[in-house]
Amino acid sequence: MATGLAASSRQPVEAGFTTARLMEYSERFLARAAQSSEQPQKSQLAARLLRDRALHRRWGHAHGVLMHAVAAAARPAAKVLELRRVTFLTLHRKAPFEYLRDRHVTGPARRQLIRALFGSQDYAQCLVREHVAFLSSACSFICADALCGEVLGDAAFCEALAHYEGAYAEYYRAYGDSLLAQHSGETAAEQSLLPYLRYQLKAIREHMLSGNPQDSDFAALQALYEASGDTHVLPAIPEP
Q: Rounded to 5 degrees, what are φ and ψ at 48?
């Protein structure tokens, strides 16, 4: 990853967090991602968005709304918090299509899952809409993550965010698998764990948004998601 942009762009929040400046950074981060060979999946997403002018314009409007909310916050700390919220919002929004892609869900199973997730809408239109939402959210996530790391210099948050992204993907795999199992008249082994997983993810988000995860049980919660293959039974949560 190039370091020149990181060195030149990091600055106080008060000076840098206008909507125009955030959009300028975002466009630069997106262009850099498209040219990167280190993360081919992100590179493909960014390049695809940039090649399609209509899609790029739509993304620019949607991303601009997110960046305006960051810039509109009154205090520097509130701006940082809003930007962190954007990372979670876009990370969650890209999850449904990532599940379809990574689990190779096709045919009738894909129709069933789209219906379960988004209601009884026109399947083809819904699929196109969700793919556009996935591309837009994935590219906004790339930008928001880079803004946190390279403009704010918040390496600790970005490291935790990468871990959370893996944890959320694990949760969504269990969620998607349980929906497909239900439509097949079966019960997925992971289904009983879903409330527990949701609780843990919520707790981790709260710790990360607090800005002081080191002063909480964040490390213990994070350790539950060390890469270990399939979702597994987790220890009981102690009473508060």
A: -65, -45
Same domain membership, residue 27 and residue 140: yes
Query: DSSP assignment of 134-178, as one string?
Result: HHHHHHHHHHHHHIIIIIS--HHHHHHHHHHHHHHHHHHHHHHHH
For the chain, give the number of residues: 240
> Whole domain around residue 187: which residue ranges?
154-227
DSSP state of 233: P
Q: Which tens digit of pLDDT belongs to each residue from 182-197?
A: 877 777 667 788 988 8
pLDDT digits (tens, 9 = 90+) for 139-169: 999 999 999 999 988 888 998 899 899 999 9
Domain endpoint, select from 153, 183, 201: 153
